[in-house]
Amino acid sequence: MKKRNIILGVTASIAIYKACELVRRLKTEGFSVRVVMTKEAQELIRPIVFESLSKERVYLNLFNRGGEWEIEHIGLAESADLVLIAPATANIIAKIASGIADDLLTCVVCATKAPVLIAPAMNENMFKNKITQENIRKLKSLGYRFIGPIKGRLACERLGIGHLAKIEDIIKEVKRVL
Question: N or C: which end of the chain has fewer CB within 10 A?
Answer without folding.
Answer: N
